[in-house]
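Ops channel
N.P.: pipeline sanity check, posting one input/output pair.
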């Protein structure tokens, strides 16, 4: 396309006719389709039999003719190329018309492309996919810097355009599912968060059924792949993580607040682990871990089976020969960088041979330490007996036992209590002495508060058995909580919906029938007529939440639906 423009490009606001435009009737067979029309790319050729709307257009043209002239540019003495009006021209051909009203514009190829793109974007019948393809074609032709220019010409926000251009970079197979209505645009936005090389793999693995194609489900699966960058042992800035597209913070700058997360995460686990591995391999002797434990290397917990190593547990010290052995290592969690085993041996046979005690004469084989085993038997018998006799349910000693059991039930509740009480992080095998010491300092009221807090946390956050909600429904019913009367539409829920989904929701809940909604649309949002579908997503959300429509009892069916397991 020519780099320089000879004249200003006529905008769509001059369509279809101005006082200086001259309408002429051209033979339909002298007009050629525009090869740059985004509505005709690849498999997305405009099909003359594709819709009832097109059939209605043909019928109207047969009765009344073409009422709105098309726009063309002259490419030869009697030859023309379409700039705007593809459907009208095709319908005229199908209707058997020999001529069609047209406005001939003096446009070069570059100018014609711009007019055609903007005109396409203002069409009411443009599908989401056609719109996105128009954006992508324009940016491909003119570069990323053209987004702001296109936004000004079309009145569409740059962020909206940028997202759709990015979406069109996804694999064609996935885009086809979107165009066929199998997946929502919100799903495509979530896929943008992934490393481009991992999108198809994710699609094959995590998007197999209708449940997995939900926006919230796709988001949840991608969130599950995220690795907090705080766990990096390498320097993230030097490694390029700060500006990497897989950085969740970078995604916010590219795509907006819908991609925001509380923590800065990496969404390319393979890259993260390799950087972690490279750093540790090259720098192990100088790391704090190597200096503290005296080990000669590392291995990742996720990459070694339990039968491939032996650990030096508390009280068992490495032998002298271990000091120079490459099998004497520290086992780490590869994502968090935290220690799984301080000291371990990855040569189990050698470890066992060093541990074996030689038998002498006819002496019986030395028995293992029986203390822990019989201590446990004693406590299992004695503690319940004493507790049943001496401890009322509201006794502080009984409450401490309950609190200890709940708090140490999971790593997350243990961590929750430790942080609030100023206890350094500790794992389950490190004992509960510090936690118990803190519990001894709490009174009945404080113990009761912690028992309630942790039990609710375990019920609502940590015990997602099979992903079901049965226990939550039961607890809610027990407490007199009712979804139907208490749940309200809110911003977080609506942001997860596409525009068509929000409009369907409004229809389902009869929100747009409310006079307050109509008044807000016409007044605050300056909407003309009943064209709610032309509103931007943020304005539709404002209409629902800010118009004053009473949302009590207006609960979507999907919120009220309770699964069979309940």
């Amino acid at each position: 396309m020519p780099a320089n423009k000879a004249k200003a490009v006529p905008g769509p606001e001059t369509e279809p006719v101005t006082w200086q435009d001259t309408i002429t009737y051209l033979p339909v067979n002298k007009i050629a389709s525009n090869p740059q029309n985004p509505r005709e790319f690849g498999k997305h050729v405009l099909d003359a039999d594709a819709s009832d709307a097109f059939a209605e257009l043909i019928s109207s043209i047969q009765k009344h003719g073409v009422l709105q002239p098309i726009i063309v540019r002259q490419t030869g003495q009697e030859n023309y190329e379409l700039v705007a009006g593809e459907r009208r021209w095709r319908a005229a051909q199908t209707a058997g018309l020999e001529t069609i009203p047209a406005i001939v514009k003096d446009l070069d190829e570059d100018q014609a492309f711009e007019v055609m793109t903007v005109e396409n974007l203002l069409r009411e019948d443009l599908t989401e996919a056609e719109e996105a393809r128009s954006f992508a074609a324009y940016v491909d032709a003119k570069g990323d810097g053209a987004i702001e220019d296109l936004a000004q010409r079309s009145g569409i926000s740059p962020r909206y355009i940028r997202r759709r251009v990015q979406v069109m970079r996804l694999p064609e197979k996935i885009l086809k599912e979107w165009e066929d209505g199998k997946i929502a645009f919100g799903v495509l936005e979530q896929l943008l968060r992934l490393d481009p090389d991992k999108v198809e793999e994710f699609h094959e693995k995590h998007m197999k059924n209708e449940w997995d194609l939900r926006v919230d489900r796709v988001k949840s699966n991608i969130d599950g792949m995220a690795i907090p960058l705080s766990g990096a042992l390498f320097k993230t800035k030097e490694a390029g993580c700060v500006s990497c597209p897989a950085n969740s913070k970078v995604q916010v700058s590219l795509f907006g607040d819908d991609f925001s997360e509380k923590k800065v995460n990496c969404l390319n686990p393979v890259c993260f682990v390799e950087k972690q591995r490279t750093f540790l391999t090259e720098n192990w002797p100088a790391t704090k871990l190597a200096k503290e434990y005296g080990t000669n290397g590392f291995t990742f917990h996720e990459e070694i089976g339990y039968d491939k190593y032996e650990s030096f547990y508390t009280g068992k010290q490495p032998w002298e020969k271990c000091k120079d052995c490459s099998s004497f290592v520290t086992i780490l969690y590869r994502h968090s960088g935290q220690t799984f085993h301080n000291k371990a041996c990855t040569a189990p046979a050698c470890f066992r041979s060093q541990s074996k005690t030689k038998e002498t004469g006819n002496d019986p084989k030395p028995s293992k330490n029986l203390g822990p085993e019989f201590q446990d038997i004693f406590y299992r018998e004695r503690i319940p007996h004493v507790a049943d006799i001496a401890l009322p349910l509201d006794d502080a000693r009984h409450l401490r036992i309950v609190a200890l059991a709940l708090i140490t039930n999971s790593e997350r509740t243990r961590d929750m209590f430790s942080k609030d009480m100023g206890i350094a992080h500790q794992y389950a095998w490190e004992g509960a002495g510090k936690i118990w010491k803190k519990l001894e300092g709490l009174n009945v009221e404080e113990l009761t508060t912690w028992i309630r807090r942790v039990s609710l946390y375990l019920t609502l956050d940590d015990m997602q058995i099979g992903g079901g909600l049965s226990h939550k429904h039961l607890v809610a019913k027990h407490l007199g909580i009712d979804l139907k009367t208490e749940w309200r539409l809110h911003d977080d829920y609506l942001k997860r919906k596409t525009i068509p989904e929000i409009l369907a929701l409004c229809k389902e809940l009869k929100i747009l029938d409310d006079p307050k909604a109509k008044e807000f649309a016409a007044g605050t949002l300056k909407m003309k007529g009943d064209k709610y579908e032309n509103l931007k997503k943020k304005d539709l959300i404002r209409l629902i939440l800010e118009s004053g429509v009473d949302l009590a009892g207006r609960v979507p069916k999907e919120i009220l639906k309770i699964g069979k397991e309940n």
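N.P.: looks fine end to end. The mean pLDDT is 79.
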